[in-house]
Amino acid sequence: MRAKREYRNREGTEVAILDALVDRADDGMTVFELRAAVEVDIDELEEALSMLKADDLIVVESNSETVIKPADRVVPDGPANEDDEQSIGEWLRDRMPF
After folding, report:
1. Among 19, 53, 64, 94, which residue has the fewest nearby CB atoms (within 10 Å)?
2. In sequence order, which residues have a C-beta less than 8 Å from that of residue 50 and are 6 or more positions away?
3. H or E element: which one contains 38?
């Protein structure tokens, strides 16, 4: 599943993190799981997480281990349907007068 469209205009690592977290919205992910899912170095991951946290797009829960979850507003309401995404051609066709 992918994060809502309005959150997809961010830097690539941030979008990848949000997408990974949305896939596991109920359980969340540890930093190590995120690093494996996003495949970036720890410094880039840390920077992206701090930006997402500052914008209140992620929630950090600390119990026996630290778990990161997406904010509720980032998670799509229904199941994601890749066919619902508008292609660039469709977007242009809708906006160009013919």
Report:
1. 64
2. none
3. helix 31-38
Q: 51-81 burial, b for 16+ CB within 10 Å, e for fewer?
A: bbeeeebbbeeeeeeebbbbbeebbeeeeee
Q: Confirm if 85 and 18 have CB atoms less than 8 A apart.
A: no
Distance CA 3, CA 20 (A): 9
Task: Name beta bridge partners: 70.
Answer: 58
What is the rounded average pLDDT of the residues 18-38? 90
Is the pTM here over 0.85, yes or no? no
